Amino acid sequence: MMQSTFLLALVLLGLVSAAPAPGLRPRWAHPGQQLNKRSFRVDRVKVGSSPPSAVTALVKAYSKYNIPMPDGLVKSHKALIEKKKKAKAKAAGASAGAVGGNSSAAAAAQSGNVTNTPEQGDLEFLAPITVGGQQMVMDFDTGSSDLWLFSTSLPANQQTGHTNFDPTKSQTFQKLKGNSFQITFGDGSNAAGNLVGTDTVNIGGATATKQAVELASDVSESFVTNTQSNGLVGLAFSSINAVKPQQQKTFFDTIQDDLALPVLAANLRHDANGFYEFGAIDQSAFKGNLTAVPVDNSNGFWQMTSAAFSIGNGKAQQNANASPAIADTGTTLMIVDDAVAEAYYGTVEGAAFDQQQGMFTFPCNSQLQDLNVALGDSHMATIPGSLINFSQADANTCLGGVQGNQGAGLQIYGDVMFKSQFVVFNIKDNTVSFAPHAN
Fold first, then answer.
1. How far apart are CA 212 and CA 200, in angstroms?
2. Quick one: pLDDT at residue 229?
């Protein structure tokens, strides 16, 4: 953990010498001064090489969207947690007296370019942001709409290992009296707090003043144990923001009118550099033309139709009673309708739904074909078989990056999909555009 944190700090410090990315409102600008509309980029750099856990990723996705979990998945996840606790206790005993946590990331100097780190083998894409002058390493999530932070309001045992926002050390924090938030997930985990306010938030050199920030006073163990991340930057639609009684805007919503284009481009690559970019579309980052797909945002998500699929070079098949799909950078795996998952793994020799694991598995030496899924009516996205071979359960058995949705009525296209596609979210046109990554 300390080695990973140290590497992240080195990367951030190394960016200080780089030319800052252009921001929307430089710190020297007078509040009333008119500035040209701008764009800014949040770069990501590979740091570390921890193996991913498909079990953890699937539990997180099911919990987030209230999808019932198979008994085998619950048991395998509990066993994994116990294994991690024992390993952590052993490591703590071996390094007694060492300073823990990831506060070194908070001490790194601010720069225009922001490192976005694929944590735990691409399990989530993290990036440092600055809130009230305090740097926080966060998870960018197009599947939620709250900017919530670990804070000094948490009990001491929940703060351990995290960078915790302290509103008393910010000169720009203003409390929104009477407001609170509570986000509850399907497995009962939650993040909640009675302190909501506005502050100056800087991401990659772009500054949003009076951005709503939600300070957690209670978080579940699943968040506490993930000491790489100190909260979420929600980038879905503001209609599902959890603040009550006065619902708040997302960062994307706040800055949209200041952007050269009202877009967020996600160029997330497997085990390689990539970026998020607000306000511009890098034409060199994708092949061919972008295909715009209409979005139904009535549920607050970047939701679209996905009613057909094919496997390898096979003919397109209609997915009868297809569930809508959402594009979610906060989900690691690709969760599809059960019929699609069953059809796909039906072509993989030795593949089966493992009752003990609670998910689809296959022999690690299997040759996996590509999966092609329709995004809207006019774009077919190809997910390479190499991305679907996600992680190992043991020496001979591997776990799939594509899993079924247990009949939940929603398909969740997470990072397994994003690692194959350049994706552009347009907040004014209500579209998501796709094209294959450039080589």
1. 9
2. 86
Question: In 245-388, at which residue ranges do the beta strands (DSSP E only) sit?
Answer: 263-267, 274-278, 291-294, 303-304, 308-311, 317-318, 325-327, 334-336, 352-354, 359-363, 371-375, 379-383
Q: Are 319 and 339 in contact (CB under 8 A)?
A: yes
For 140-157, the pLDDT digits (tens) are: 899 999 999 999 999 999
* Euclidean distance between CA atoms 377 and 308, whole angstroms: 9
Rounded Cα distance between 59 and 271, Å, is 22
User: How far, rounded to the nearest angstrom, does the alpha carbon of residue 384 sit from its chain's CA centroid?
Assistant: 20
What is the enclosing helix (H) or strand (E) of 8? Answer: helix 2-14
Active-site residue (options: 328, 354, 370, 415): 328
Radius of gyration over alpha carbons of the chain, in Å?
21
Question: How far apart are alpha carbons 1 and 3 in whole angstroms?
Answer: 5
Longest dimension (CA), the chain: 65
CB count within 10 Å of CB 79 equals 12
What are the tens digits of pLDDT across the range 385-417? 999 999 999 999 999 999 999 999 999 999 999
- 166: exposed, middle or buried (Cβ count in 10 Å: 0-12, 13-18, 19+): middle
Residues ≥6 apart with Cβ < 8 Å to 51: 120, 121, 391, 392
Task: Determine which one of 139, 141, 253, 354 is catalytic.
Answer: 141
Instruction: Identify whether 141 is a catalytic site residue.
Output: yes
The first and second tokens of residue 321, run together, are 């009673």
Mean pLDDT, to the nearest integer, of 89-97? 62
187 is a catalytic site residue:
no
- The yes-or-no verdict on residue 34 having pLDDT over 70 is no
Q: Does residue 169 contact residue 163 with C-beta atoms inside 8 Å? A: no
Kindly report the pTM of this predicted structure: 0.83
The count of C-alpha atoms lying within 13 angstroms of the C-alpha of 257, restricted to the half-sphere facing its C-beta, is 2
Q: How far apart are CA 31 and CA 97, in angstroms?
A: 47
In this predicted structure, the answer to whether residue 20 has a pLDDT above a threshold of 70 is no
Long-range contacts of 417-420 (CB under 8 A, 24+ apart): 417/327, 417/334, 417/373, 417/381, 417/383, 418/266, 418/268, 418/327, 418/329, 419/122, 419/268, 419/269, 419/270, 419/387, 420/381, 420/382, 420/383, 420/384, 420/387
pLDDT tens, 205-252?
A: 788 999 999 999 999 988 898 888 899 999 999 999 999 999 999 999
Write down the residue that tokens 């969760």 correspond to.
Answer: 335
Three-state DSSP class for 71?
Answer: helix
| Start-end of H helices in 167-277 | 221-225, 251-255
As separate numbers, helices (DSSP H) first and strands (DSSP E) second, the chain gives: 10, 31
